[in-house]
Predict the 3D structure of the following.
Amino acid sequence: MKPHYTLKQALESLNHAVELSLKDRQRMEGSVAFLQRYIAQSDFPIYGVNTGFGSLQHIEISADKLSELQNNLLITHAAGLGLPIDSMLVRAMLWLKMLNISKGFSAIRPIVFERLAAMYNQGWYPLVTEQGSLGASGDLAPLSQMSLPLIGKGFLCLKGKQTISASEWLKQNNWLPLQFGPKEAIGLINGTQFMLAHALISFRSITQIFKQLPVISALSLDAFDCKMEPFESIIHRIRPHAGQIAAAAEIRAILEESPIAKQPKKQVQDPYSFRCIPQVHGASYDALNHCISVWETELNSVTDNPNVFEEENIVLSGGNFHGQPLALTLDYAAMALSELGSISERRTYLLVSGQRGLSSYLADGAGLDSGYMIAQYSAAALASQNKQLCTPASVDSIMSSNGQEDHVSMGANAATKLLRVIENVENILAVEWLCGVAALKQRDLKTSPALQRGVDAFSKAYDIDHKTQPMQDLIASAKGWLFPRIT
């Protein structure tokens, strides 16, 4: 595995098999050998290696019990609850954990890596549930669930379909359950890989939203016959936030050749949801780009505890497992995305309002035909739910482990909430796109050539007659067109 990855490279790597390089193997073997020497020479207890865990850290464990200590840790910490997470998230967790332990600061043997790689490469993903992590001593519960099959416990799913017990999976491969060495189990379950996997998969969706948002909003601008004045570059030159400048430039580029955009307007100004697209979209762009930079740092970090420093001849117990950097940015990302959904729903509301020569609810004979009335209701419901989901998890903390773990990040809750916000935003944007397409058909002029080709291709690909097709099907078609699912 490479020493440094971008989020994009990490996502691309999820499509390929994993193999332990000779350099990584030597680094891992070296850290294991060093820890064994360190244990033999040290007069002091080493947390999680020859002591109990959490508030039990004062209890020393004898040398003949160290393997049992690690196996017991895995079984007792696999306390996850709730629904199973998506198989792609588990795949990402496995990949991130392998990257983490390959760096040689965890004293984990290559055979452990190779068993994780076997699950990953074969497509047998451990059953991991969405609840149970406090996001502080690492993602203990979900990472324990992910690691259980190594000792013949738990269950695995073949790409989210067929389920077998871990003992069956080991039997298929003619393997016995692993007996962990000192620090191996704690190295597996300490870390931020559950939270980070959610961030990584969220990044994929955010990238697609960045791509489609300007197209969708540009269509709405033309469909509502808006002025282009608010997008002039000199306006943004005197308030030069990077995201704002970029958002304005996107709209100018898309609508540069639009006959609708060029025709004279009756109104002096447009409502904020159109006029302030650069300011609102741009602020979210900047916020999300900050989150992405934090996630990339975390991607290339070591987040278990304690850490083994062979060159410095020391084993140190610290707090790199604490998820606060992720918790804050996962919350921030949810808020930034929620705002994109919020302003989108307002544009939809205006498109169906019966103004500027458009029919009420974009219906063919309002009254007999309700048009897109309830599509806007659905978008409003999701926008409202996003506001509720944006209550930050990262400002919460519950003391655990008898006070030893007295401040936790709750980043795992922020992570699972973020995926729900993303799903809602994609649906809200799908509704806006549908309404933009319907409104554009009521105009005498066409939009810019490139955007018109996109509208025409969508209309050709799907039956979007709202009088014959249930509205839910139309929304699903729009979402599938804009945000195709990658498996």
In short: Residues 7-191 form a domain with the Fumarase C; Chain B, domain 1 fold (CATH 1.10.275.10). The first helix runs from residue 7 to 13.
